[in-house]
Amino acid sequence: MSESKRRFDFGKMMKSQLALPIIALLVMLVVNVIIIAVTKQANFFKVSINNGVLYGYIIDILNRSSELVILAVGMTLVAASSRGTDISVGAVAAISGALIVRLLGSSYDSYAMVPVLAILFGLLASAACGAFNGLLVARLNIQPMIATLILFTAGRGIAQLISSTETATGVILYVRKESFRYIGGFIPGCIVPTPIFIAIIFVALTYLVLKKTAMSTYIQTVGINPKAGRLVGINSALVIFFCYVFCGLSSGVAGMIASSRIYSSDANNIGLNMEMDAILAVALGGNSLSGGKFNLMGSVIGAVTIQALNTCLYAIGVSGDQLPVYKAAVVILIVLFQSPTFKAWLTNMKNSRASKKLEGGAV
Questions:
Q1: Other C-beta atoms lying within 10 Å of the C-beta of residue 319
Q2: Would you say residue 191 has pLDDT above 50?
């Protein structure tokens, strides 16, 4: 293969929507390798089996990013269709987790309700929250951030009411049955964390639905121009409504995993600040928050990259309260690279260099 052909292929690869997300992930992995080696004197990529389960930094990143991956998938469809974001996903996750734990009960002997039914009711509640958001955005034409601000503000209060007892409001409810931990932990005999399987299945099912139906085309068409979508026979309002319901469902799945991880329901902390991480994952994945074309794998890679960033920051001693400051720096870089002015500047610089080369060759 000639040098010009290789250069052409590399240029084509760099123009791919997944190019920058993959580069960002690789950079974070390299940084983690260096930081872990210096601060922990350990091998970042080492994976071992302890007590019958997998342990290692890579496994921890994949495990801890599972909820964010699921949320990012739902957020991707919302951003692509409505040209806005759903900032209530963290609160909706808290509602789902609180309802599931409340229905399961706290007995050591047996569940108050069959786990399948409790989880089903929790997911239905989160889907109903998504339907509420979708109704405001799709039918009443309220701006997505304003519409979802309602549940962002009231959602945790609802979760606290669900978690109330006769003597106190918003208490932490516990599930006493050990089997509930399987969802957010490990299934007996399986060395891979269960949340990883849940995230993979969720992403795969979403991809298949979008791939095997026309929904992906509908979402992109509506996101680019809803009026044009209506002219070609697409029910734009219904498409946007569906995406918000799906985003609510994804929040419910994330809340289920989060409540299982901590073996309880903490309405104040489940899903806290995850709406910002989900939006950041979508943007880091190369997806435009102004609607239109989207790539699910980009958002998945973005979510894993954010968790890798968290791991790196914790390794160097950054506290959880300081994490948003560093993430803000990442947001600034994303906004900069997606800015039309910055892209135009890069194009002008490239054209200027090409002109100088031509002039030099002519001389």
A1: 8
A2: yes
